[in-house]
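Exercise 7b. C-alpha cells:
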C-alpha cells in the first residue's frame, strides 16, 4: 500500500486583521494526487487561507507548508512548487495569450525550446488554439479564464491552488473548466476554492469546509452529502449555520 505524500499542509493557522479573526486554528492536509474542494460561504476565509498557502500573507499563528517547504521560511522555494490562480486573476488586455504566456514563462526562467514546448502544451491543454494570437481584451471571460489556467500550468508545478475558477462563467465554459480540472487532477495536487456546491461533486475527491474562519468539515463529497441526510445543500446550510429555523 503506497503512502500518500502531504503536498499542502495548513497547521493551526490563524489570521487576524486588527482585532478581526479572519481564520481561527485551521488545520488540513491535501495529499499528492488529490483534488480537494475548499468549500464555504462568501467571507468564510477561503481566499485568506489561499493567500497564506501561497505566501501572499503571513499567518498570525500556525504554519503553512507546500511539498514539505515552510512557506514563511522559504517563500521562493514553495512558490516554485505552486501554480496559483486567484479569482479574476489580472491579465494584460493589450497582449495576446502567446505574448503574456511567453512573458510569464521567461519570468519563471523558461527560454528557447523549453519555453516553446510548454507554450504549445498549455495551448493544447487549455484549448487556446483558436485565440492564441488574439488580443486578450477581445476574448470572452471563459477564454480569459483559460489563459489564467494556462499561466498556472506553464512551469509544470506540483501543486495547483485555484480561487473560484468557474466564477462568472456560463454553463458551457464551466463544463470545459471542470473537464480541464479533472484531467489535470490525474497528475497534480489541486486545492480548489468554491462556494458552488455542484463543483464539489463534479471534480473533488475530498472536501474541506470552513465557516466564519473555522474548520467545520473534512471528508469525501459522499460523506458531506450524508451529513445532510442525502442532500448536499442541506449539509452546507447545517454546517455553515445558514439553516433557517
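Sequence design result:
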Amino acid at each position: 500500500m503506497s503512502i500518500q505524500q502531504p503536498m499542502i499542509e495548513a497547521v493551526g493557522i490563524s489570521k487576524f486583521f486588527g482585532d478581526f479573526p479572519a481564520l481561527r486554528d485551521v488545520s488540513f492536509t491535501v495529499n499528492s494526487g488529490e483534488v480537494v474542494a475548499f468549500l464555504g460561504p462568501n467571507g468564510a476565509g477561503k481566499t485568506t487561507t489561499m493567500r497564506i498557502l501561497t505566501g501572499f500573507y503571513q499567518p498570525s499563528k500556525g504554519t503553512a507548508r507546500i511539498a514539505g517547504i515552510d512557506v514563511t521560511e522559504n517563500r521562493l522555494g514553495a512558490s516554485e512548487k505552486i501554480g496559483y490562480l486567484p479569482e479574476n486573476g489580472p491579465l494584460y488586455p493589450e497582449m495576446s495569450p502567446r505574448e503574456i504566456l511567453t512573458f510569464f514563462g521567461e519570468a519563471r526562467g523558461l527560454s528557447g525550446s523549453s519555453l516553446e514546448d510548454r507554450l504549445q502544451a498549455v495551448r493544447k491543454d487549455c484549448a487556446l488554439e483558436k485565440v492564441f494570437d488574439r488580443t486578450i481584451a477581445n476574448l470572452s471571460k471563459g477564454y480569459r479564464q483559460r489563459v489564467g489556467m494556462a499561466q498556472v500550468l506553464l512551469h509544470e508545478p506540483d501543486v495547483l491552488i485555484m480561487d473560484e475558477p468557474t466564477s462568472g462563467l456560463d454553463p458551457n465554459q464551466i463544463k470545459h473548466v471542470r473537464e480541464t480540472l479533472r484531467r489535470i487532477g490525474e497528475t497534480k495536487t489541486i486545492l480548489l476554492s468554491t462556494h458552488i456546491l455542484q463543483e464539489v461533486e463534479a471534480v473533488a475527491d475530498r472536501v474541506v469546509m470552513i465557516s466564519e474562519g473555522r474548520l467545520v468539515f473534512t471528508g469525501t463529497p459522499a460523506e458531506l452529502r450524508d451529513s445532510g441526510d442525502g442532500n448536499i445543500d442541506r449539509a452546507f446550510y447545517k454546517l455553515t449555520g445558514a439553516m433557517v429555523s
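Instructor comment: The two ends are 46 Å apart (CA to CA). The longest strand covers residues 6-17.
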